[in-house]
Amino acid sequence: MKPSDRILEIGCGTGVMITLPLAESCYDIKGFDEDSSSIEYGQKVLTSSGLDSNILKQDLKGVDSRSFDVIIASEVVEHIDDDDMGAFFDNVQHYLKPGGLLLVTVPNGYGCFEIENAIWSQFGLGRLLSYLYIDRAVLELKQVLGFKNLIYPHPSTLSASPHLQYFTVKSICRLIETSEFEVLQSAGSTLMSGPITNLLFGGLPVFFRINNFLGKRLKYMASGIYIAAQSNKAR
User: Fold this and answer.
1) CA-closest candidate to residue 33, choices 68, 49, 51, 9
2) How far is the C-alpha of 73 from the C-alpha of 10, rounded, in Å?
3) What is the structure's pLDDT at 123?
4) Helix (H, G, I), strand (E, B), or coil: what is residue 155?
5) What value does the mean pLDDT take over residues 103-127?
6) How many helices (H) does the chain have, and how many strands (E)?
7) Which residues contact 225 (CB under 8 A, 6 or more apart)?
């Protein structure tokens, strides 16, 4: 992306993960999310950071079609059901310039992230560790050993939305290509990810370096999938 690009983040949540950092880096970016509580929260964060709260919007009324050079959909597509998927990509094409760039991130539906989430939430490991104070003990032990626990000051979203899609690298690329995009690049994020990994290894720099290295080398096994695609749709 270039600083001169007009960027739209669709499904931005509170905006703290992508919209806020890019705005602080002087990129021309807007964030959109249908969840009013997330937008209101994010607007307060923007204001406290000395930025224009109107960067975040709950609707795109008045926004011209074909007006963005880049559209970002990070951790969004897995929340969309089959009946709405076509409309979602139609909207992306509506606001993206011909030849514009679409950046997508999704969890690997069969990777470590989804497995850890299931064990932690559906099978109750998180509740058990909290009940037995084991999670707190692990965090305190890491502090004693000099490791910095990762504590995020703001939530990425206030909306509880389940995953409805479980993608592989091939299936997310195929979906994007059938929506009149050319996939330019696909990559893996980290190999391991999720609440168990964060509890045990969060704040360990050596682990993160190895984890990132393995995720990039083993993209089909990585916890997350990154896609860069270009619109093929004519004006």
Assistant:
1) 9
2) 5
3) 94
4) coil
5) 95
6) 9, 7
7) 105, 106, 107, 108, 167, 169, 172, 186, 187, 188, 189, 219
The residues with which 182 forms a beta bridge, in sequence order, are: 230
Instruction: Report the candidate in 72, 74, 128 with the shortest Cα–Cα distance to residue 96.
Output: 72
Decide if domain 6-108+159-190+223-231 falls under CATH 1.20.1250.20: no
Asked whether residue 23 carries a pLDDT value surpassing 60, the answer given is yes
Q: What percent of the chain has pLDDT above 70?
A: 98
Task: Assess contact for 163 and 156: CB atoms under 8 A.
Answer: no
Looking at this protein, which amino acid is placed at residue 138? V
DSSP class of residue 14? T
Q: What is the DSSP string of 41-109?
A: HHHHHHHHTTS-GGGEES--TTPPTT-EEEEEEES-GGGS-HHHHHHHHHHHHHHEEEEEEEEEEEEBT
Q: State which H helix or E strand residue 200 sits in.
A: helix 195-201
Mean pLDDT of the chain: 94
> What integer pLDDT is reported at residue 151 of this predicted model?
72
Q: What is the DSSP letter of 18?
A: T
DSSP state of 125: H
Extract the tokens encoding 34.
Answer: 């249908």
Measured CA angle at 124 (ends 134, 129), to 5 deg: 5
- Euclidean distance between CA atoms 64 and 19, whole angstroms: 20
Work out the average pLDDT over 53-67: 92
Higher pLDDT, 8 or 153: 8
pLDDT at residue 61 tops 90: no
